[in-house]
Amino acid sequence: MKNRGFIVFMTVIVTLLCIYYLSFTFVSNGIKDDATAYATDQEGNINYSQRQEYLDSVYNVPVYNLLGAEFTYKEVQDMELNLGLDLQGGMHVTLEVSPVDIIKGLSGNNEDEGFNQALETAKERQKTSQNSFVDLFYQAFQEEYPDKKLSEFFATSANRERISFQTEDSEVMRIIRSEVDDAIDRSFEILRTRIDRFGTSQPNIQKLENTGRIQIELPGVDNPERVRKLLQGVAKLEFLQVVEVNEVSDALGAANELIVEEQKAKQSNELVSEDATDVSEEESADLADLLSEDETDTTAVAEGDSTDASLDSLENAQNVSPLFSLIRSQYGLVYEVTDTAKINDIIQREDVQALFPRNTRLIWDVKPRKLDDGTELLELYVVRTLRNNQAMLTGEVINDARQTFDQVGQPAVDMSMDATGARKWAKITRENINKRIAIVLDNYVYSAPNVNVEIPNGKSIIEGNFTIEEAKDLANILKAGSLPAPTRIVEEAIIGPTLGKEARAQGIISIVAGLAMVLIFMVAYYAKGGLIANIALVFNIFFILGILAQLNAALTLPGIAGIVLTIGMSIDANVLIFERIREEMRGGSPLLKAISAGYSKAYSSIVDANVTTFLTGAILYWLGQGPVKGFAITLMIGIACSFFSAVFITRVIVSWMSKKGDQSKISFATPFSKNLLTNISANFMSKRKMAYIGSGIVIVIGVVLMVTKGLTFGVDFTGGRSYVVRFADQVETTSLKVALDGTLEDAGTEVKTYGANNILKVTTSYLVNEESTEADNEVKSKIIDGIAQATGMSYVETESAMGDNDFTISGSSKVGATIADDIRNSSQESVIFALIAIFIYILIRFRRWQFGLGAVVALFHDTLFVLSAFAIAKLLGFSFEIDQVFIAAILTVIGYSINDTVVVFDRIRETLGVKSKASNVETFNMAINNTISRTLMTSITTLVVILILFIFGGEVLRGFSFALLVGILVGTYSSIFIATPVVLDLAKGSKKKQVEA
């Protein structure tokens, strides 16, 4: 064999590289095991905070010495094979940058009614449209003002160098698009900065081109609310003057009187003062001490309070509203946290806001103060703004911020400003001596110190009774800068650590079981040749994992499915080779010549089969999202590795074992398989009409069921929210669905078991078009309430807290209606592009359009057949979801089916290339008969591993593996009874002699 030395050299190099990169994974896993052991108590419960503390303690400590090079735990993590969220738990978020605020800001916050109505109209239309928001806004603007130009609204002083009143709409639109694109880029950089400093290991953030979306994965996150706040925070930092209560006492009194009068009318003159809460002397003293301690400083800020506000006259009024009856202090407006909702109902009213002086806002403190008795109190500030609700100073002037400690050792934030900010800050502090300045972030007061003297250098210490974590978050946000526009979460998935652990175990079982079955089968059928194929297969899997580690790609559950599938499909090349060798030996060729001819004649079929499958993987990666990309990466790497190992590594081993043609050293058949599937002469072409009719009947039944009964679409395609709910004991799904239907009004809700009788998956379209955090909380709350009412069980936050009568939510996902449309469209495009690419490749390779069209017809047949199988399965009570992973399965079926078809086509081409007097029918039958053993062997090995995946792969991959089971069966069938017969029927007009079957 030529180039044997080079192949051995490359195998050794790749093997050493894989060992090098995978070694970091072994080291990292060992450290994580140590951390888990450290955080596990005697009862086996894991304290994840302690576990994280352990990992943080070794983060920058050398933990691995390799050939004299030392690596810290951080460096080891960066080099290890990443696990996807579905295998370790964590949070997946897709954010969309809101263009509304960008356009508003570009217009100078124009308050024109028609202009703002056009923005609202565009927002509504975007929910069901694939057009960009900017285009939708322009359409709505033209409807509102058909005779006006955009420049009338965007020709502001800030834009005078770019937009004048004479600027055409096309140019204004270009500028708007540019601003939106720049805002997305800036948001991406800001979010990446925040994520990099968030503290999670192996975060992943990427910009989804041409969508305005940013995708983020945070492995191991156990506080989703903190993540949402960090990601969606606009980080709008403002410095505002605090208006002391005595300055707005008239407005407060008027507001109180307004509410009281309403209460009198509703309650027939009942006194609301009966509900007033009195503060004991002891509580007042505690609160006074607390508030005096909380008076925060910046550099040269006094600790005293310049305000001598008093609410005595208001609190002593005979009739008071909740605005005063719930006050817990003589100082300022301080309420119990549980009462803030009542206060918000009042202060958010337009008629109440109109009573306060112009350019004032009511803002809550960022966090409650806890008294010794456990009561949590929250202060409501009144702050003054400049004209147009502008702040005295904003966060753009901050050039650095970091977590530090104040003089008494409490966490604080060290903040410095640029020259412009320092100059303005000096003027602000000079003009507000003996007044309080509120430091407001995202409309919450983080600190409100008294200014004692002018601060000339722009360097300040922000104190606010922070925890270290809160101080770090604030410093990160300040240093990252302010987002140019708000972001909203349009897709979210939370996977609990238990679900990730179970998925990981299921994936390992699938790989090991599938590998074992294939290894046994290959040796049983191909003897020593099978052993050689098994060696190549082990190399193949090792290479896949090593290359994934080198590329720093994440191994996901669909990626494991890709490896399992590769185990089955990688054997195909060896089956092709071995069957060719056996065919040559049956023809009388000696061993060495048979081996050479087998590799040579099988090569073109192997190349064609691998290229077509690789094409589908590339299209999956190009158009797919989320878990589909992980599957596509693994599939493509697997195809490349299997080609190298099956064609070249096995050739080296076979050449070495077959020296001098000694039959005792190598064989390709056992007594069982020696004459199996040989000398077959079936007339397959005569059955083609029957096959057409049979396939047509199944597909028609499936289409009718799809139209009448529908398919079960996952939230990927429909939008909505789903929750994986774990119960202490088995729960009946029907009664729970009835209860949730009553709780979630006018919404489609599905409840089904999820791998075990005590685990259910609840999917609902309730508030599908609402993507706010408030809507998320409302849906989750209704789900919890409905389950609790139906089962009598209590909800707990974590699985470790579950008792005999409890339930918890182990995982959840949300897909907005807009992104669901995008996913559905990209899935359709994936299938269409795959079919087009395969048609073009087959056309080029076989140089006859009949082959390309025949292959595409068979692939359409396979796709419809799988969909029909899903519809029939639903009728029989087996509901499998149609989602992104299903599309990956469909494209895999297309790749597998064309793989099988190409082998037959290649044999037909080979036969036609020989001057033969046989008719097309005879030629086609001969090609199928000659390749039938390879077809069945490949199908059997692949079906074995897919069946194992279906049984052990877990609920997440149940629909995926079912689609593959059906697809592999029908793909094998269609290559014989659909693709080849279609080519025959299309070729009837050719010059070759035609004989009717």
Automatic annotation (TrEMBL):
Keywords, alphabetical: Cell membrane, Membrane, Protein transport, Translocation, Transmembrane, Transmembrane helix, Transport
Domain of life, per lineage: Bacteria
GO aspect biological process, one term: intracellular protein transmembrane transport
Localization of this protein: Cell membrane
GO terms for MF: protein-transporting ATPase activity
Matches recorded under InterPro entries: SecD, SecD/SecF_arch_bac, SecD/SecF_bac, SecD/SecF_CS, SecD_1st, SecD_SecF_C, SecD_SecF_C_bact, SecDF_P1_head
Gene3D superfamilies: 3.30.1360.200, 3.30.70.3220, Multidrug efflux transporter AcrB transmembrane domain
Chain ranges of the Protein export membrane protein SecD/SecF C-terminal domain: 488-659, 803-988
Membrane topology type: Multi-pass membrane protein
Pfam families in the cross-refs: Sec_GG, SecD_1st, SecD_SecF_C, SecDF_P1_head
One Gene Ontology term, aspect cellular component: plasma membrane
Domain SecDF P1 head subdomain: from-to ranges: 387-485
Domain Protein translocase subunit SecDF P1: residue ranges: 184-242
Main location: membrane
Assembly information from the UniProt record: Forms a complex with SecD. Part of the essential Sec protein translocation apparatus which comprises SecA, SecYEG and auxiliary proteins SecDF. Other proteins may also be involved. Forms a complex with SecF. Part of the essential Sec protein translocation apparatus which comprises SecA, SecYEG and auxiliary proteins SecDF. Other proteins may also be involved.
Its biological purpose: Part of the Sec protein translocase complex. Interacts with the SecYEG preprotein conducting channel. SecDF uses the proton motive force (PMF) to complete protein translocation after the ATP-dependent function of SecA.
Record's protein name: Multifunctional fusion protein
Gene: secDF
